[in-house]
Amino acid sequence: MVFISLRAGRYIHRFWGCGNGKYLGLTPSCYFIGCDISAPLIKICADKGHEVLVADAVNLPYRTNFGDAAISIAMLHHLSTEDRRKKAIEELVRVVKKGGLVLITVWAVEQEDKSLLTKWTPLAEKYVEEWIGPGSPRVRGPSPFTLESIPETEENGSQAHAKDSNDSLTENMQQSMCLTPQNEDDVLVSKHRMSQQEYFVPWHLPYHRAEVSGASAGALANGLARKDDKKGAVVYDRYYHVFGEGELERLVSGMDNAVIVNKFYDKSNWCIILEKTL
């Protein structure tokens, strides 16, 4: 991790969404404190000797202005509303000192391997098939681009405007998210896929992993996960809001206590580094 090595010698790094501790302790001269919403994952980290705790991204249990750096790798895209994503970024900035850095990486809608999008389940499709039920007259048109815009109490919908909506959604998304096609290869992704940013992505958890426990057994029993014996894994559908170009910058544009010092695209991820100024 180049970012971590550049901060070597600093006192404290806070790692939000540390998972099983893959990146904790990479630099011996840095002191890491990790947090995650998953208690089983935190236990794995603790068993490895890491300093970790269970915490909510939008309400971190840390003192203000106390860390030299904060890191969030591939976690912000799991939050389902823009307000929560903004709040999580504000929390990361809050806990570092003035002059401290914050690194955030998220999955990009502009995937290098565009065929991946066809393997993911768009939120609208899963909502219709599993939450409303096949054959229901309450069928929605193409999904808007944010999860929070799907009203839970909507009683009626219509597919009559689906085709026109596809065109207008794509145009709106290209304007608001800067998703302008760059070359002929982008034609491989349909207009609907280009306008889609909310997905359920299959996540395979191998049987031998320590995370597979009674929780997985319960998820299987309740239909929240499925087994793939060929791959020897329990399969979960994980929610992702994939980010468009410029979206991370817009999330922080209204902050008065941090500035962007670097932004880049790396291996199908949008990345941003902030510096706290106040």
Essential attributes:
4-stranded antiparallel β-sheet, 278 residues, methyltransferase, transferase, Rossmann fold, tRNA methyltransferase activity, 11 strands
Can you describe this structure?
The chain has a 7-stranded mixed β-sheet. The protein has a 4-stranded antiparallel β-sheet with strand order 6-7-9-8. It is of the alpha/beta class and 278 residues long. The chain starts with a helix and ends with a strand. The chain has 8 helices and 11 strands. The protein is globular, with a radius of gyration of 20 Å. The protein has 3 domains: 2-108 and 243-276, Vaccinia Virus protein VP39 (Rossmann fold); 122-195, no CATH class; 200-240, no CATH class. It has helices at 2-6, 39-47, 82-94, 123-132, 162-177, 191-195, 214-221, 247-252, and strands at 12-16, 31-36, 52-54, 67-73, 96-107, 121-122, 198-206, 225-228, 233-241, 258-266, 269-276. InterPro entries: AlkB_tRNA_MeTrf/Diox (IPR051422), Methyltransf_11 (IPR013216), SAM-dependent_MTases_sf (IPR029063). Residues 17-104 form the Methyltransferase type domain. Residues 139-170 are annotated as: Disordered. It comes from Theobroma cacao.
**What is the CATH T-level topology of the largest domain?**
Rossmann fold
What's the main sheet like? 7 strands, mixed
Would you state the CATH class of the largest domain?
A: Alpha Beta
Poorly predicted tracts of residues: 136-194
Q: Name the average pLDDT.
A: 78
Helix content: 25-40%
Treating each run of at least 4 consecutive H or I residues as one helix, how many helices?
8
Order of helices and strands: HEEHEEHEEHHHEHEEHEE
Number of domains: 3
Q: Pairing-aware structural class of the strands and helices?
A: alpha/beta
> What amount of the residues lies in strands?
25-35%
CATH homologous superfamily descriptor of the largest domain? Vaccinia Virus protein VP39
Strand order of the largest sheet: 3-2-1-4-5-11-10
Tally the beta strands.
11
Radius of gyration: 20 Å
- Approximate shape: globular
State the distance separating the first and last CA atoms: 27 Å
Per CATH, the architecture of the largest domain is 3-Layer(aba) Sandwich
